Amino acid sequence: MMAALDGFLASYGNLVNLCLLNTLLAYGVWLALAANMFTLGTGGFMAVGAYCSVYFTMQLGAPFAVAVVAGGLLAAAVALVIGAPVLRLRGDYFMLATFAFTEVVRVIALNWDAVTGGAIGIYGIPRYTETWQLVLLVLIALYFVFALRRSYFGRSIAAIRQDDVMSEAMGVNVFGQRLSLFVASGFVSGGVGGLAAHLNFFVGPSDFGLLRSVDALAYPILGGVNALLGPMVGAIFTTLLPELLRFSSQWREILMGLLILAVVLFLPGGAMSLLRWRPRKAAARRPSTQGAE
Amino acid sequence: MTTFLQQVVNGLSLGSIYAVFAIGCTLIFGVLNIVNLAQGAFFMVGAYLGLEIALLGLPLPLALLVALVGGGVLGMASELLVFRVLRLRGGHKWMGLVASLALARLLVGVAQEVFGTAVHGYPPNPFTAIVWEIGGVRVQLLQVIVVITAVILMGILGFTLQKTSVGRAIRTVAFSEDVARIVGVEVGRTILITFFIAGALAGAAGVLLGLLFNVVSPFMGEHMLVKGLTVMILGGLGNIPGAVAGGFLLGLVEVFSVAYVSSAFRDAIGFGLIFLILLVKPTGLFSGFEERRA
Amino acid sequence: MAAAELELWQVAKRFQGVVAVDSVSLTAAAGKVTALIGPNGSGKTTTMNMITGLYPTDAGHIRLDGVDIARLAPHKVAALGVARTFQNIRLLASETTLDNVLLGAHRHQSASLLDVLLGLPAVKRSETREKARCEALLDLVGIAALRDVAVGGLSYGDRRRVEIARALATQPRLLLLDEPAAGMNFAEKRALADLVLAIRDMGITVLLIEHDIEFVARVSDHIVVLNFGREIAAGTPEEVRRMPSVIEAYLGTEDA
Asked: Does C163 map to a domain?
């Protein structure tokens, strides 16, 4: 049994790690999406976490776990600082402000040679990230999200997502909850950045741009924001699919584009909506009563 | 002083292209309150279409025209295949972003498959050869042509929006879809035209940038998309005069910071400023020009 | 949990220069039902939005038992015991009736995130307690049978009841009802009137906006009439009914 597992991991280890890593990231982004925060800041938080943790292990000689947590905490601190002003912006402005943040981080990474290695990036990062650690973290994330969703916090978060004005009037501290979730999302994204850096031997500024942020958003959206396993399904689907499509890399991009389009167009609730068995919901899906008079 | 004027020339020619591209992005936002992330890909396709025409030995105005139409058709396709379907389904706004990026990805893949991943350049044309020296400032004929073309395109757009019935329809839909329906505007068709215009502007910008820097690659769209979003923020979402001003401003700032500020952190300063603008004055630097939908 | 007294003093609100509420002063006496009536656009809902903190006031005071709440964020106003329903019914359409009402109980649950993650028994106890309380409220407003139905599929009148139950779940001292009887038939209105009186008798101050004069007369202890953003009359239902200025403003003059 163990031998079979070892053999499997030897052949597909990288892919498994990638799936786990992206699953973790998907739940990080979900934390923001759950309260209707369409964040393009994920790439920026990942970069902060990645460079910070690499600095800890390679320059300071800190233990791996400390380095990853430090990366996550620094990203969370950054999220706290930018979150307070950014969260006051309405929908699209919030999205664009987080986009601008990610670009600021990318450009700083491009130029702060002493810490980030500039445009070349940092090579030869020791490989500390292991599959069992990722499995453990994914399980923790799953439990966290599970417990959160079924608690009264989950109820208020779902309410914020659908109608923040009403939630506020019912006594929910909308700003406080959004900020907490944004910071938590930053923490997870930063941690994933650190884990990814110590998995790939390399970090560079081009790893964390706009596309990285949108990809990360696509995981939970494609899988389904309303389902516990949605983000995981979306992350694994999006990660595995290009590998399974054994075509030229160009054709892979084309097919990925087509598949994502198909999911978005034909499964508006994400892939997990296929599995949902709540006939009542269909009747309930109508324009919600929003907007003050 | 010479360096200064030289940078003004370079900045204006670059900025005019940014402006043309960003107008398209901001126009769609003004009408539908969405961001079409595939605009960058239309820009890239436009550059390739223009390149193919030029390689056939046909005149550059024809190349520009083909890119305009090609970008416009792609714009319409994105509306018909993606955004309209999502609207009818009542899909969440997020879906449009994810879908438009998937469309961009698809087009980049197709471009790689068809044209390869190598960087191409336009064939030599007489415009690059002609250079004037005015008081030590080098002005390429090409730069002049790019700026003039961009200004003409913006002029046509401005005229269309202000003086024609199509433009009135677009402005009415931008103000309120319900009002537009009440006064008898065909909303669906108007939105389709808006997407055509935006795509056409992106395609044209592709040819102009390809000519100016003589660089065409499948990945040029992503870069341009970032610039377009930046200009949108500078000018205020949905604000067309703001996008024109923002485009020129970004072009000038980029060129000047290369010349005067050490290149390190120059972009960081730019994006930091944008971040601040969003926080302090989210309606953009040039708000007050146009009515925006609440 | 005693009923609260609400006092507005020369409250004003403008939107981009347009006066929505010019100057409104009124008192909703503790433990009474006060009605706010007036033609469309007279500033009733704007006033309610200012009381609940949704709109900041431009001038004047809003006092709840003497405490100025005009500058507080909506959730802080709610925390002081002010609950409301919405004119355009704002429920979570895909959630069940009970889940919607439970949102009102949010502020009475104090378990920390850590408690939740550790699954402490106290968390479960508080959840069970709030559920029981909300079910009792569903019973009170008469929709106990619809407990597990998604509210999107409910009738208009039932959805209004869900909103009232949700507001009651916050355990308010002051309840604001924005056109609670709109769209209801005669029988439903009668039942609603009884419900409003029952809520008052529970020791909750009620301030309601309503167009249906019969309904207002039936439930109100005190009526305030607004027009053009000012209060033009106030008194008991009988007094207000006889005032010519009210008849003119509310019903319009014959030749208008």
From this structure: yes
Is C103 in contact with A163 (Cβ distance < 8 A)? no
Q: How many domains does chain A have?
A: 1
Distance CA B100, CA B83 (A): 8
Q: Say if C97 is an interface residue toward chain A (CB within 8 Å).
A: no
Q: Going residue by residue through chain A (293 aa), what tens digit of pLDDT does each one get?
A: 667 777 777 777 888 899 999 999 999 999 999 988 989 999 999 999 999 999 999 889 889 999 999 999 999 999 999 988 888 877 678 888 888 888 888 888 887 878 888 778 888 888 888 889 999 999 999 999 998 888 888 889 999 988 889 999 999 999 999 999 999 999 999 999 999 999 988 888 888 888 788 889 888 888 888 888 989 998 998 888 877 776 667 777 788 788 888 888 887 677 666 665 444 444 333 333 333 33
What is the bridge-based pairing of β-strands C174-178 and C82-84? parallel
Q: Does B201 touch chain A (CB under 8 A)?
A: no
CA–CA dist B9, B141 (Å, integer): 11
- Asked if residue A283 is part of any domain, the answer here is no
Chain B residues whose CB is inside 8 A of the A90 CB are 282
User: How many alpha carbons lie under 13 Å from residue A266 in its C-beta half-sphere?
Assistant: 7
What's the gap between Cα B245 and its chain centre?
A: 13
**Residues C200-223: tens digit of each pLDDT:** 999 999 999 998 888 998 999 999
A abuts C (3+ Cβ pairs < 8 Å) = yes
- Asked if residue C178 is part of any domain, the answer here is no
- To 10 degrees, what angle do helices A91-111 and A42-54 make? 30
Could you tell me the residue range of the domain that residue C124 belongs to? Answer: 91-171
Higher-confidence position of C209 and C183:
C209
Q: Which of A82, A98, A102 is nearest to A205 (CA)?
A: A102
A163 touches chain C (CB under 8 A): yes
Task: Please state, in angstroms and rounded to a whole number, the distance separating the CA atoms of residues B2 and B101.
Answer: 43
Residues β-bridged to residue A203: A122
Backbone angles phi, psi at A172, to 5 degrees: -85, 130
Number of domains in chain C: 2
Backbone φ and ψ for B116, nearest 5 degrees, come out as 80, 170
Nearest to B289 by CA among B181, B164, B158, B197: B158
Degrees to nearest 5, angle at CA A200 with A198 and A203: 80
The token pair that represents A96 in the structure block: 């664009």
Q: Would you list the domain boundaries of chain B?
A: 16-221
